[in-house]
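Students often ask why we bother encoding 3D structure as a string. The short answer is that it lets us treat folding as translation between two languages. Here is a chain of 130 residues written in the first language.
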Amino acid sequence: MTGDLRLSVDDNTDDNYTNRVIGSTDLVPNRSFSVALGDKLNRLYLILTAPVTLETTRGFLVQVSGADVCQIGTSDSPAVILVLNDIRVNLNRITNLPEPAYPHEEATKTYADNNSRKILSGYFPTLRSF
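And here it is in the second language, the structure alphabet:
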């Protein structure tokens, strides 16, 4: 990508309105810039050769039509992603799951198929069909 990258606060281009445009012109490889979001730690950091980095001190809330969808990081736990709505996978898959360590964690089909099940009279061995 080369050229201009601009973020506009409003989409009305009428001369009666003043657009606030933030961004960079003449993007070239390895050029970077920041967009402040309130203070110097809350910012979007953009560099042409890497993915966009979002640096915030209190997390980043994503809303659609006024409804909370997800929050990336919190002031208490910056490494947490809170999903505040249903996740639709459609025809895609969730992959690369580790083996569960706690009862409430998700498990792969292979993990479930290869573990014995406790019943009232003991354990069943792994059941396989041909």
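Translate back mentally: Residues 3-83 form one domain. Keep this in mind for the problem set.
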